Amino acid sequence: MMLRTLCRSGGALLRQTQRPVPRLWVTPAQQRWASSLPMNTVVLFVPQQEAWVVERMGRFHRILEPGLNFLIPLLDRIRYVQSLKEIVIDVPEQSAVSLDNVTLQIDGVLYLRILDPFKASYGVEDPEYAVTQLAQTTMRSELGKLTLDKVFRERESLNANIVHSINQASDEWGIRCLRYEIKDIHVPPRVKESMQMQVEAERKKRATVLESEGTREAAINVAEGRKQAQILASEGEKAEQINKAAGEAQAVLAKAEAKAEAIRMLSAALTEQNGNAAASLSVAEQYVSAFSKLAKESNTVLLPTNTGDITGMVTQAMTIYGTLSKTSPKVESVAPKVLEEQIEDPVNHSA
């Protein structure tokens, strides 16, 4: 009977002493305050991904795990409720100065998780405020090491450095920073205008370079085409000259063979009966033909003294032929050739 009365009076006293207490890391909507902490109803059901910190007579006792738990009235009290889910915190916008003295306005998003509910409850007074301030100071420190151009190019490395710096300080708080992302970077209007002008100048530069490279490639292609055309033309001319020379050589050979055959036939004809008379007739015909062509190609003409004595000219040619025939039998085959030369050039011989 006394125990029942004591329990009722203790429950009433507990309800009277309840007051609004801040509840940390409650919902993704970032509602950080609850109406009250859970009451000690002896039998408690702890939700999944939550850790309830219990104090016994004002001293830390234990952390309630998800599921069914039992507490002693009056002696045990739920002091903190910690969420073990990943928590998202908006880092307020702040100003920072880069290495090249440009003032920037930067804000970000911080993702973290509570790994040790005991340290998160007793290691720091306000974990959210502590982590936010640490992220801001670390961001200003890291931005002071980079120029404006590198801030835009090295955002990933900047985020990684901020996460590393936060984790070094938050280990004692039982909090682990998972990642940090920069949302917006605002630059002064004048700096923005100069950056736009720089971008336009860079684009014009690239366009000029590409145009010059295209002109150079076109000139190289034209020169290569002309070179190949000249090479092909020279090769064609070379082949044409070779073919022409070969044709001329064959023509010379054919003429020589025909002339040799004519000489052999003339020699054979001279050895027959009345060959000398036929030779005399041929010499006379060549003599008349030669005189008919005088003064057609040049104004200078050389004439023998006895121009009208055709018989004497023929007799002289036949005398030379007879002398060569008697001199050496070996030269017999050459006599028709000498006779032909005498017939072709009667004027020079007479001179």
TrEMBL record:
Domain Band, chain residue ranges per copy: 41-199
Locations listed in the record:
Mitochondrion inner membrane
Q: Which GO terms describe its biological process?
A: mitochondrion organization
| Coiled-coil ranges from the UniProt annotation | 239-273
Lipid metabolism recorded as keyword: no
Q: Which domain of life is it from?
A: Eukaryota
Its biological function?
Mitochondrial protein that probably regulates the biogenesis and the activity of mitochondria. Stimulates cardiolipin biosynthesis, binds cardiolipin-enriched membranes where it recruits and stabilizes some proteins including prohibitin and may therefore act in the organization of functional microdomains in mitochondrial membranes. Through regulation of the mitochondrial function may play a role into several biological processes including cell migration, cell proliferation, T-cell activation, calcium homeostasis and cellular response to stress.
| The protein's name in its UniProt record | Stomatin-like protein 2, mitochondrial
